[in-house]
Amino acid sequence: MKRIVTLLLLAALLCCLMSPASAAVIDPIEPYFQKIISTYVDFSINESTGIANCYARCIAQDGVTIKIVGTLQQYTNGSWVYVTSWSTTGTGVVVLDKQYAVYSGYKYRFIARFYIYDANGSFVESDMLSRIYDYT
What are the sequence ranges of the domains in the chain? Predict the structure, then answer.
């Protein structure tokens, strides 16, 4: 009798271990937007010229206004310090593409905030992306 119980327990254990691998796969969670189709940001520093290239793009559905606010920060003494910012507004596809001279020896962060407004000027939704460049 002990042998039958042992075999049954072993069979049950093997069935649990042989479950399909796909059952354990979890799809990544992506944000749901009402009007934003896509957002993108790129940030680099040309180390021979010291020019920071700050780029942000937003694509949204028709009938809304897109506002992009880009902020450049420098990491100094353990915190992020404001350097400069820009903004642009438009519809459809909006691009913010700016350059700024920076000093070597620091980390820099470019933050792009994307704001969407409906035809009445009421806020609908927003997104934010950032990139860090180590220019030390």
Answer: 36-135
Taking a C-beta distance cutoff of 8 angstroms, is the pair 68, 88 a contact?
A: yes
Cα dist. 10→2, 6, 13, 17, 21 in Å?
12, 6, 5, 11, 20
Q: Between 22 and 56, where is the model more confident?
A: 56
Picking from 19, 41, 24, 91, the residue whose alpha carbon sits closest to that of residue 62 is 91
Q: What is the rounded CA–CA span in Å between residue 70 and residue 22?
A: 41
Strand partners, 111: 71, 130
> Does the model's pTM come out above 0.85?
no
Q: What is the mean pLDDT of the chain?
A: 88
Domain 36-135 architecture: Sandwich (2.60)
